[in-house]
TrEMBL record, chains A, B:
<dbReference type="Pfam" id="PF00440">
    <property type="entry name" value="TetR_N"/>
</dbReference>
<keyword id="KW-0238">DNA-binding</keyword>
<dbReference type="InterPro" id="IPR009057">
    <property type="entry name" value="Homeodomain-like_sf"/>
</dbReference>
<dbReference type="Pfam" id="PF17754">
    <property type="entry name" value="TetR_C_14"/>
</dbReference>
<keyword id="KW-0805">Transcription regulation</keyword>
<feature type="domain" description="HTH tetR-type">
    <location>
        <begin position="6"/>
        <end position="66"/>
    </location>
</feature>
<feature type="DNA-binding region" description="H-T-H motif">
    <location>
        <begin position="29"/>
        <end position="48"/>
    </location>
</feature>
<dbReference type="InterPro" id="IPR023772">
    <property type="entry name" value="DNA-bd_HTH_TetR-type_CS"/>
</dbReference>
<dbReference type="InterPro" id="IPR050109">
    <property type="entry name" value="HTH-type_TetR-like_transc_reg"/>
</dbReference>
<protein>
    <submittedName>
        <fullName>TetR family transcriptional regulator</fullName>
    </submittedName>
</protein>
<dbReference type="InterPro" id="IPR041347">
    <property type="entry name" value="MftR_C"/>
</dbReference>
<keyword id="KW-0804">Transcription</keyword>
<dbReference type="InterPro" id="IPR001647">
    <property type="entry name" value="HTH_TetR"/>
</dbReference>
Length: 186, 186
């Protein structure tokens, strides 16, 4: 095997998700992931710190996308709609079978579920900071970001649990509409 | 020391919070907590499974209070207002110096912060279930509960970080008002 391995990262992710699904996260070793991907353990560790990191490595990119979308929204856009647009863009980026498989692995493991909650809390903080940079007050920024993440989380869980019913960005839009309705006392 | 120790549980909680604040959570042992409370380790373990449990044991009572308040709200109360009333009642129960000390200990430790997020997620699930029992649809119940917990979390953090400014139930009311304003696109 040569030093240049095309799409090593993607192949490792794919292999890891397959094995986590087949055997469970705890039972899978890095050696097995590398073998399934046709790569070495050394290559694995060039891309990921450990087997947990395979599941969470993409959240930095997602955060960048959310922050950029909020900051670039037109000045006239209400904060809640800037956050909705950002999470819809995030949903469009996540809208593939791999995200669904990843979620199935995460819900099956308490430690991974905790980690996922931490990542969601960190996305909410990043969104709040982006809103403050738009001049939104601290309290409004925090509430908009946290409520937005709540809408995203609920939509994502529905999408995972009801395959092929609706696409994720559409579910996110509906979730924000419902959020607006329930907070209006409907 | 006799077998009957008045308010052993409260004394252990008090001693634990003092020590966690003075030395840090990791550096404190159960033996030290028992000693500070003037009790034995055996008594400690009659009340708590481990030193982490001291910080989270009350969350079952809080959950019961929230669920009961939602279920007992008048039929005419909008779901979001039933949740606000529940969390205000929860805030009134938590509105004492011990809750503030507890929070300071938790934010200083990554593992405890994760645990706290799990407890908040579990409170949101319990609130959503209580709303479904009131006949609220699944999606509306989840969004109302998650958005409500977001409002509570933001209010609680403000209360912890700005001592003596406002009382917690008042901050929770203001947080819900702000939540309604931001989701209305203001």
């Amino acid at each position: 095997m040569g030093r240049w391995e095309p799409n090593a990262r993607g192949r490792l992710e794919q292999a890891a998700l397959e094995l986590y699904g087949e055997r469970g996260f705890e039972q899978t070793t890095v050696a097995e992931i590398a073998k399934r991907a046709g790569l070495t353990e050394r290559t694995f560790f060039r891309h990921f710190a450990d087997k947990r990191e395979v599941l969470f490595a993409a959240s930095g990119q997602l955060e960048d996308l959310l922050v950029r979308t909020v900051i670039e929204a037109p000045d006239s856009t209400a904060p809640i709609d800037a956050v909705a647009a950002a999470l819809e863009a995030g949903g469009a980026a996540l809208y593939h079978e791999r995200a669904r498989k990843r979620h199935t692995v995460i819900v099956a493991n308490a430690e991974l579920r905790e980690r996922e909650l931490v990542k969601l809390a960190s996305l909410a903080s990043a969104l709040a900071e982006a809103l403050r940079r738009r001049g939104v007050t601290d309290l409004a920024a925090q509430l908009t970001a946290e409520a937005g993440i709540a809408a995203f989380k609920v939509a994502f869980e529905h999408w995972v649990n009801e395959p092929d019913e609706k696409d994720l960005p559409q579910l996110i839009r509906e979730s924000f509409d419902e959020l607006k309705a329930v907070t209006a006392g409907k």
